[in-house]
Amino acid sequence: MSFESFLSAQSFLLWTVFILAFILGAIANKTNFCTMGAVSDMVNMGDTGRFRAWILAATVALIGVVILESLGRADLSSTLPPYRGSEFQWGRYILGGILFGIGMTLASGCGNKTLLRIGGGNIKSVFVFIVIAVIAYYMVDPYKELPATWYQSYFAPWLGKAAISLNTPQDLGSIVGNWFGVSAMTMRIILGAVVAAIALRYVFNSKDFRTSSENIFAGVSIGIIVLLAWYFTSNVAVTTDDGTVSMTKFYGEWDMMMDSTEGKPKNGSTNLQAQSFTFISPIGQMFGYAGSGFASAFMTFGVVSVLGVILGSFILSLVTRNFRIEWFNSFKDFYMHIIGAVLMGFGGVLGLGCTVGQAITGVSTLALGSFLVFVSIVFGSALTMKVQYYQMVYEEEATFISALLSSLVDMKLLPAGMRKLDAI
After folding, report:
1. Is the pLDDT of residue 423 over 90?
2. Nearest-CA neighbor of 381 among 31, 124, 50, 150?
3. Residue among 422, 353, 413 at smallest CA distance from 394
4. Number of domains the chain is built from
5. In a domain? residue 307
6. Is the pLDDT of residue 396 over 80?
7. Are 327 and 38 spatial neighbours (Cβ–Cβ below 8 Å)?
8. Residue 137: CB partners within 8 Å, gap ≥ 6?
9. Is residue 291 one of the residues assigned to a domain?
10. Is 30 helix (H, G, I), strand (E, B) or coil?
11. How many Cα atoms occupy the beta-carbon half-sphere of 419 within 13 Å?
12. What is the pLDDT of residues 238-254, one digit of tens each?
């Protein structure tokens, strides 16, 4: 898809992303697609329906990415965020994932759910959004306006020491292909097929899931939406006198291509890269966009995706008459949401994504870090739910430490002798 001007190409891309985000917001609202809810269903009720829908979405996106790359219709070697970066920052992935999992549990939902709840009239989620926006902005600096980010100042000096420098990109195809002397693309096809087959077997092994048209629809449609975002951000281009060039290349040669800086986006070398849906860094971009006075130069994929999801959820809530203004039940409810928002803000940036950004979008690239973040998020959320449940059942008898130790025993991460409370 090539356009005669950068402006028309950018306009097409942003409107396309907005429409996809709008549909994503409406579908997630209608089907109650919620990753925190998926973990809660498993931990508290043994119901894996929504978790399987989550896995199905990631699998559909993965299959699509493998097909796109094998046909030469996408190149995800350089993306935003850098899923396949050769620096395997395992400490960052684990810490970020666990913090995010804890945070989304305390704040009643992940980044995507926060946007859905805002669209549905939830004022609590507006506070969560604001906290995430500030933290993500200063952690990432999406428009390159700060002398240093919080991550560079406070986290990189010690988390960076744990990073492992790989000889290849960190996607499974590149790593395994390098071991056996096989091309990364060939191995991505092979491993993609294996991972997809295992995932689909798990997903449809449940009779209850096979008969749940809503969960199947949610998983398939959201996976396709993530895939379409990859496709459009990889293929929208600009026609020049020297041929067709990508938007990032055009941006890099702006001074030669254009007579002025009018219409030039902020930090386009990063913000115009191939990308798909993730919601923590984009919420941070919203902070920068608002701070600029809503200048068009600050309009990015992330900004329109946030606005699209909120509007899609809002319209669906009005149509179904489910729009409800919801406020905090107590001061404890307030500060638990704020603490959760803080943890999600830091955790989402450290883990390079959220439950959608890593566990669906990142996994679709077969990035090793994405799988690690996925597991860490689920662990952090499940552990938090177990601790909360022990504290609720035993009330004053259960200290945080006794509830934590008993929860870790339940999860078979500590020996039974360390249990402090009877199992529930």
Report:
1. no
2. 50
3. 422
4. 1
5. yes
6. no
7. no
8. 284, 285, 287, 288
9. yes
10. helix
11. 13
12. 998 888 999 999 999 88
